[in-house]
Specification:
The protein is α/β, with parallel strands linked by helices and 221 residues long. Helix content is 31%, strand content 27%. The protein contains 7 helices and 11 strands. The strands form 3 sheets. It has a 7-stranded mixed β-sheet, with helices on both faces. It has a two-stranded antiparallel ribbon with strand order 2-3. A two-stranded antiparallel sheet has the order 8-9. The longest helix has 14 residues. It is globular and about 50 Å long.
Length: 221
């Protein structure tokens, strides 16, 4: 069985209050996306890396690779109008059966240990997603009323989300639904029960300016 990593890099810089898309912002003097690709390339499983990127960002990415002397092998695939279509484009380029980890480009601090654990566990369970238990109290707001939820039953979902290719191809053969918030929700909609493995507190998603500062601090330590 072969290993694949689909790195989804379709984000914009809106919430970062910058015109530069988040995946291209500098983190410790290297674009965020390069840290992410590096993590997968240096893992023990060393999956084939498929980078899903908007067509109008591909020339800029090629320029960055040249500027930063970045030569880690990866295949660039056209992104879609929604994350669903971006992942689907990548999934259907894979011909051989294997296991596929789907990961946010803007989670650059994912550890090699978590990547390897994801591939090891998916071979046993068919699908696994990284998630961490909520450390905060959680309330649900519905119809203008709030209610407390049990904190120990709430998990905050991360990536990688890892699946067998056969499951992914079946899941992404269906029509897009606005209720799809991540790959697990797409797979769950075809009747698959989703399995959780322990994620990492440091596996943060770069969304707001403070996230970049925190990532710098975590890398420094």
């Amino acid at each position: 069985m072969k290993y694949y990593a689909i790195i989804v890099a379709g984000g914009s810089g809106n919430r970062m209050q910058t015109e530069t898309p988040k995946q291209f912002l500098l983190l410790k003097k290297l674009p965020v996306l390069m840290h992410t690709i590096k993590a997968f390339a240096t893992s023990n499983t060393q999956p084939k890396i498929l980078l899903v990127l908007n067509k109008n960002q591909q020339a800029y990415w090629a320029m960055l690779c040249k500027e930063f002397n970045f030569h880690i092998p990866h295949e660039v695939i056209d992104g879609g109008t929604e994350r669903f279509y971006s992942v689907k484009n990548a999934v259907y380029t894979i011909a051989e059966e294997g296991f596929v980890a789907i990961h946010d480009a803007v989670r650059p601090l994912v550890s090699k240990k978590l990547i390897d654990s994801s591939f090891m566990e998916v071979a046993k369970q068919g699908n696994v997603i990284a998630a961490v238990q909520s450390s905060d109290s959680v309330r649900l707001l519905s119809a203008g009323k709030t209610s407390a939820l049990k904190r120990d039953e709430i998990y905050l979902v991360q990536t990688p989300q890892t699946f067998s290719l056969s499951i992914l191809k079946e899941a992404y053969n269906q029509d897009f639904n606005t209720h799809f918030t991540d790959d697990a929700s797409v797979v769950e909609s075809i009747g698959q029960e989703i399995n959780i493995i322990e994620g990492e507190r440091a596996n943060i998603k770069i969304t707001y300016p403070i996230d970049l500062e925190l990532a710098e601090l975590l890398l420094k330590n």
